[in-house]
Write a structure and sequence with these properties.
Blueprint: H1 33-55, H2 62-68, H3 72-103, H4 108-123, H5 126-134, H6 136-139, E1 142-145, E2 154-157, H7 158-161, H8 164-190, H9 193-201, H10 206-236, H11 249-260, H12 263-292, E3 322-323, E4 329-330
Antiparallel strand pairs: 1-2, 3-4
Length: 342
């Protein structure tokens, strides 16, 4: 056999550590004709519905919609709706946190009171509760302050103290607080128990532990459902006619429709304003969720080696040896994977 020389035209054996550059993968996108057909059908149905709504249904009366969309009474009703939503949610969140803490209390009496509150307000419809709150001035004509079983020192008329707007806020807030309590309780239970123990070990009191350790971590769980409850509260304000309070957005649109005999256009006007405010609240909810979800699910980038693993060697590497009973030195096999001599 003739030896291979550098000048010969024969192939040269590649170096074991060399790697061929992989070819780019040519991915072929899967086709889904069923999805395409379904999407086209949906677009056609939506187009037909919009065309029918715009041209074939005079009952919508879009001229009336444009006329009353920015009417002063409608704008005033939207402002009252916002006030009902904000005031009710503030009270509900504060009361919900208190009820949630009571629900988790080791004191059985405190926990039982919280459970009864949740059972009562979650077990009855909000409309029924609002009707009841509207009848409070009839049930309790006066509010008497003084020593029990003696003559009242101060007597205040309930109608003078609580107007229908205040009663609507109280009714909405007490009902919502029951749901907020369960949301807050779920958020508190989602925080690892070790966080509480670590805070106690650092010498923090209950208030600082709750406000600086537990609640900030629980907000990641509390914020999403709370945002949903705010949006739901905005729409629930349309039920305050049961109090009765009729200056909200739906109440004003209903009053106008009773005069113009155009109920459908006024319902569209109210729906446009509800959708507008709801869209703004959804944007705010998105940014709040993103703020409190910082660092959740993030993973550090995997550090890639700067050289091939096969090229890394240990400086001063020596294989261990073992003396035998005959006085010889035994060198264990090390030249191939899994053991065994060369």
């Amino acid at each position: 056999m003739s030896d291979m020389r550098s000048g010969d035209a024969g192939p040269t054996a590649p170096h074991p550590s060399a790697h061929a550059e992989p070819e780019a993968i040519q991915a072929i996108k899967l086709r889904h004709p069923g999805r395409t057909v379904f999407a086209v059908v949906l677009i056609l149905l939506a187009g037909l519905f919009l065309y029918d709504t715009a041209f074939n249904r005079p009952v919508y009366n879009w001229g009336i919609v444009g006329q009353y969309l920015f009417d002063t009474r409608i704008l005033t009703g939207a402002w009252y709706t916002l006030q009902l939503t904000v005031y009710s949610m503030i009270i509900a969140i504060v009361l919900g946190i208190a009820v949630a803490v009571m629900r988790l209390s080791p004191n059985p009496v405190v926990a039982a009171v919280a459970w009864v509150y949740l059972w009562l307000f979650r077990g009855t419809p909000v409309y029924v509760q609002l009707v009841f709150w509207g009848m409070i001035p009839t049930i309790y004509k006066t509010i008497d302050l003084g020593i029990p079983f003696t003559e009242a020192l101060v007597s205040i008329s309930t109608k003078d103290l609580l107007n229908y707007f205040t009663l609507a806020v109280i009714g909405l807030a007490l009902n919502e607080a029951a749901y907020m309590a369960e949301i807050v309780r779920a958020g508190l239970l989602a925080v690892d128990k070790g966080q509480d123990e670590a805070a106690i070990a650092l010498g923090l009191g209950w208030w600082h532990t709750m406000s600086r350790v537990i609640l900030p971590q629980a907000m990641r769980v509390i914020i999403p459902p709370t945002g949903n409850e705010v949006i739901s509260m905005l729409k629930t304000t349309s039920l305050v006619a049961a109090v009765p309070f009729t200056l909200d957005l739906y109440g004003r649109s209903r009053d106008i429709s009773a005069v113009t005999y155009q109920p459908v256009p006024m319902l569209i006007v109210a729906s446009i304003w509800y959708l507008t405010v709801t869209s703004i609240l959804m944007v705010g909810q998105y940014y709040l969720e993103r703020h409190y979800a910082k660092g959740i699910g993030d993973r550090p980038d995997v550090q890639k080696p700067t050289v091939e693993t096969a090229a890394v060697t240990v400086v001063g590497e020596r294989h261990p040896t073992y003396p035998s009973t005959a006085g010889e030195t035994i060198v264990p096999p090390h030249e191939r994977p899994g053991g065994g001599g060369a």
